[in-house]
Amino acid sequence: MSKQRVKFTFLDDLVKQPIIYRLGQSFDIVTNIRRADVREDMGWVVLELDGDDADIQRGLDWVSAIGVRIDPVSGDVVEG
Amino acid sequence: MSFISGLKCRECGREFPAEPLNVCDFCFGPLEVVYDYATISEVISHDRISSGPLSIWRYQDLLPASGEDPVDIMAGFTPLMKARNLGKRLGLNNLYIKNDSVNPSFSFKDRVVSVASTKAVEFGFDTLACASTGNLACSVAAHSARAGVRSYVFIPWDLETGKIVGAAVYGPTLVSVEGTYDEVNRLCSELADNYPWAFVNINMRPYYAEGSKTLGYEVAEQLDWRLPDHVVIPSASGAMFTKIWKGFNELACLGLLDGVEASSFGPDQNTVHHPAVTTRMHMAQAEGCSPIVSAWANGQAHVLPVRPNTIAKSLAIGNPADGIYAIRVLNESGGTATAVPEPEVVEGIKLLAETEGIFTETAGGVTVSALKSLAESGAIQPDELAVVYITGNGLKTLEAVDSVVNPLSIKPTMRSFEGALNERIGVGG
Ligand SMILES: Cc1ncc(COP(=O)(O)O)c(C=O)c1O
Ligand SMILES: [Zn+2]
């Protein structure tokens, strides 16, 4: 079991789909939303995923395959 | 000693102790340093600053680490130079260049890394690390050498040679990752959770980012404690942009600007805006990676991540962490954001080199080209005081300007020389 913090960014129609619900249902992951901002045509959600490593990986692969951008929340990795 | 009282979440306001933390446990928002400005205002003065070292550590009272024995390779206190020739070319009579390309490891990153590595040593870390597209790698490697600690620097495999060599020479463990910068970031986020290392831009980020404020302090000090009417700044994550603004406002609130009354910092230290700070903050990004410019131009409340495709690799962050905060600063200061067409990046590098004798990297090319379009559009008026921040050195991105090399190739004889010259410009024998 492990926990992973991620940020999903959705565009257009993806905003209206119950992606987080399905992620939880289909992959046996507990999803815990910490912060979100969802508007009509775009949105982001910062959440923690709790589950089996393999399940989380499969779940994230599915989320990314439907076109949601996934970023790690290790804060803000700034660059140079 | 340092005058910080802890960390505070930028989103939900929860407070945390001053530890190697960068994310709020509760809402996963970014943490920022909180200062005890009441005490700072009792000790700080122009005299105290000017009697300090000729490095960023002269502003130690406003930095989140102790200046007693900093990890210091003399970052900062770089020249502010009046740019008469470039100014003339652009119709600007009061143009200055803040030449930060002459820092010890040749970019402004030495400012942030000096603060982060000092703090890391203070916390007892024996290893520094970072994910980088180059400038940061060079700086982290250099400061670890100075501090006598180990370092691991992670870079995407396709970096410019100048940055690879410029990091490797200091003896870090250089990790070349088969993947994009984005992927390097992801890897490092995971490593930061599993290794007891000070990742300067991950778990040390709240302290690290504060180092960029010194770019604001120095320009004010070099202008005899006045602020410019305009500044032009290159952005990737947007962190430096927001911190320069914060630096200007701290000076105003502490009464350190000429003719400006001190005032309170109010409830949120990070977004304080003193009414005497009227500098317009202009941001420059390259068109191939301009998510902050797009969001600002479209009036969006989100910064939509992009996949970078730009010659300006040091600015190639597709998902800028401080983008939303930078947009606030753009709006509050009445500034603008410019996306520079890719071909103009190299034009900007050449323009600066040919007019002022300063060789900057691609990030500087972006900045100079943005300045040019601001002058042309009248956003900067001829007599207004403008400062353009040149943050990295041209020797790191030689590949970008290969095309300038077109020598007269001759035999070692005068005849050959004159023949070649004649052919080139129609002069001589
Ligand atoms: C030379 C140079 N200028 C500007 C920047 C942008 O800084 P920031 O990420 O704080 O916006 C970077 C790196 O990110 C850089 O390497
Ligand atoms: Zn929070």
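qc> Residues 288 and 371 of chain B are 18 Å apart (CA to CA).
qc> done
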